[in-house]
Structures are given as structure tokens and as C-alpha cells.
Amino acid sequence: MPVYNKLVRDLIPKIIEEAGKTFTTRTLSDEEYRQELRKKAFEELEEYMNASDDVTAVEELADLLEIIHALAECHGATIEQVEAVRASKAEKRGGFKEKIFLIEVHDE
After folding, report:
1. 56-88: per-residue pLDDT in tens?
2. Domains in the chain, number
3. Which of 3, 7, 66, 75 is the most exposed place for a label (fewest CB within 10 A)?
């Protein structure tokens, strides 16, 4: 019997049940939920980093985006508010489209 002890998507218990299996779950407290979302973000980022093709990479980015949506809500924000902050920062500091790699800065 595998033991997972991790946050899963909302429909996973139903999918397990439909497969004819039994399972054990519990509902996390708000603080536990935030901690588990942070762990899940690292897990999904690692899966993205290990993606060997574009299709897999995009799937993992979608998983990361789902986590970002949930984390935004945990912090009392909407994804639109997060996007507004992102856009503001991009306007002030730019994005990453130009592929600039800073090597060093000289104080002269």
C-alpha cells in the first residue's frame, strides 16, 4: 500500500474511488494547506526542470500555474491582482524576453 502524504488535486479521491480502490484523506488547516502548496510548487518546478520535451514542459507549467492560482487565493489575492503586480513590475523593470544575462557590474 503506497503512502503519499501530499496535497493532491480535488478530483483525485474520486478518480481513485472509480478505480475501485480505497484511500484515506484529511482536510488540511489553512496553515498546513499553505505549507503543502509551497511544497507542491517545488515538486512541480522540479518536474518542469526535468521535462525532456516541450509538451511535457507545458504540462508542468500548467501545474505550476494551478499552484500559483491557489497560492494567490491563500494570500487573499486573485490571479488578476497577481497579474497586475506582474505587469507593473514588467513595466518598471522589464520582462525576460530579451534574454539578457548580466555578468558583472563595475563600480568606477
Report:
1. 999 999 999 999 999 999 999 999 999 999 999
2. 1
3. 3
